[in-house]
Structure formats: structure tokens, C-alpha cells
Design goal:
The chain has 258 residues and is an alpha+beta fold. 31% of the residues lie in helices and 15% in strands. It has seven helices and 13 strands. It has a three-stranded antiparallel β-sheet. It has a two-stranded antiparallel sheet with strand order 1-2. β10 and β11 form a beta hairpin. α3 packs antiparallel against α7. The radius of gyration is 18 Å and the shape is globular. The two termini are 30 Å apart.
């Protein structure tokens, strides 16, 4: 059943426990809804999966030749930065068109290939969502990159990927975003997923084929006025505690990011 789930999107694996089941659910979603990863690959694909003799689950994926973004040490030139950010956003457009949220976007999960393109790895957090207006239950996410709804409601929306994408883009550009991109990416940092732009709208805006940015309802997002409530790219999400108190999840330093 593990192999059927990871390679074919079929089979029952609830008996293996919640944590394993949620991991396999991501790969089953990929097998069921994403089809071919393309060539060169836009996301990794599974070669084999199963149980070891000791009962542990294993998943073997295609090796993607390249360097995870958090390990890229050389200085990227502007053309490379644009290619990485727009290539990653194009992948999100592809996923979201199939109602699939990636769920754990961060530098470590994006591989920069030798040809300058990017590939997503670690598909265990993929979730099928009902549409742009709702999320899917999830517990798997990296808190330093997660959107408020992922931490507070334990739900992943398509728009959750945009929240993390904005921070990834800011890191790729070493916190010196093109001036005309900055307001659009800040719109992705709105605390409410319903009013963030869609991936398709954002890509069209950044590529210059559209002059306006829109949310999932098609409403135009005003970029001329200050965006109320937008979280800075590296600000922790505020988490309510008992007794009405609040705390902020601390963001790790660049060297601690995983």
C-alpha cells in the first residue's frame, strides 16, 4: 500500500500512524494530481517506496542535480535572481491550477539546477485543497516560513504558498527587491489568505503582462496605498497563548534556516 500510494496515488495507509500517513498523503497527492514532473523537472518524482524489514517507511525520489537555495554561496546576478523567482512562481501557478498547495516553501526545498532553472523537492507537505477559498488540514510546515493560517488554524491554503514565496523572493534578491516588485510581494504577506494575490496574477504582474494585481475573487489589489496589516518579510507570526497573552515565534538567523 505504501508503494501504491507514493507511485500511484492509491491505497490506504492510515494504519501506519498519523505522521507517516500525512507524509504519504503528500506523495499520493503528487502521484494522483500532478502527473509528469516535466523535463527538466519542475518537482521531484518518486522512484520507489515501501517498508523495510524492520517496518520503517522509505521513499526514494529522483536525484535532482543542483544546489538548494540556502546553500548557494556565490553572488547571483540580477538575471539569475529574476529567473529563479519567476521560475518558482511559474511552478506554483502549475500546482495551484490543479488545486494543489505545496505547503512548506522555503529556500531549502528549492534546488537551483546547473541550467539556471529550479526544482521543488520534499513533496510530503503537498495537499489537495477545495479551491482558492478554503484550506486543507495540515501540521507539517516550517514555522519560520509558515503563514498565519498554517500556525494558528493548522490549515494550508493555496495562498499560504504566496506568503512564503514572498520571503523566498526577498532572500534570493538579498533583501534588495526590484522597487516595483516590493509592493506586490508585500501584498502576499497579508495575514488573511483570502486577500492575497493569486500566483497567476502575481506572475503576470511581475512579468509585465498585467498592470494590476488581483486576489482569488478577481478584486483588484491597491498597491498605491500602504498595505494595512502586511507582515514584513522576516517578521515572526504572533501566536495567541492562554490567558489572552501573545508570543512571537522567533525567526532563525540565516545560518539556522532549515
Amino acid at each position: 500500500s505504501v508503494r501504491e500510494a507514493a507511485l500511484g496515488g492509491r491505497g490506504s495507509f492510515a494504519s501506519l500512524g498519523d505522521e507517516i500517513a500525512m507524509t504519504l498523503d503528500g506523495y499520493a497527492t503528487a502521484a494522483r494530481l500532478l502527473g509528469s514532473p516535466g523535463s527538466p523537472p519542475r518537482w521531484t518524482s518518486v522512484l520507489d517506496a515501501g517498508l523495510t524489514e524492520s517496518g520503517h517507511v522509505y521513499i526514494t525520489t529522483v536525484w535532482v542535480e543542483g544546489t538548494p537555495l540556502h546553500q548557494v554561496e556565490r553572488t547571483l546576478d540580477p538575471a539569475e535572481q529574476h529567473a529563479i523567482v519567476q521560475g518558482l512562481l511559474s511552478i506554483l501557478c502549475d500546482l495551484h491550477a490543479r488545486r494543489v498547495a505545496y505547503g512548506d516553501l522555503k529556500l531549502a526545498n528549492v534546488v537551483l539546477r546547473a541550467d539556471g532553472g529550479v526544482t521543488l523537492i520534499d513533496l510530503d507537505t503537498l495537499r489537495e485543497v477545495p479551491g482558492f477559498d478554503a484550506g486543507a488540514p495540515t501540521r507539517d510546515r516550517s514555522e519560520a516560513w509558515a503563514a498565519p493560517e498554517q500556525i494558528l488554524q493548522q490549515e494550508t491554503w493555496l495562498a499560504s504558498d504566496l506568503f512564503a514565496f514572498a520571503r523566498v523572493a526577498n532572500e534570493v534578491f538579498r533583501k534588495e527587491l526590484p522597487p516595483h516588485w516590493r509592493p506586490a510581494l508585500l501584498a502576499c504577506r497579508h495575514p488573511k489568505p483570502q486577500v492575497r494575490p493569486t500566483a497567476a496574477s502575481l506572475l503576470a504582474y511581475l512579468e509585465g503582462t498585467e498592470t494590476a494585481l488581483s486576489d482569488r475573487s478577481g478584486a483588484r489589489i491597491d498597491l498605491e496605498s500602504p498595505l494595512e496589516g502586511a507582515l514584513p518579510f522576516d517578521r515572526p507570526v504572533t501566536v495567541p497563548l492562554t490567558g489572552g497573552e501573545q508570543t512571537e515565534r522567533e525567526m532563525p538567523s540565516q545560518g539556522e534556516q532549515t
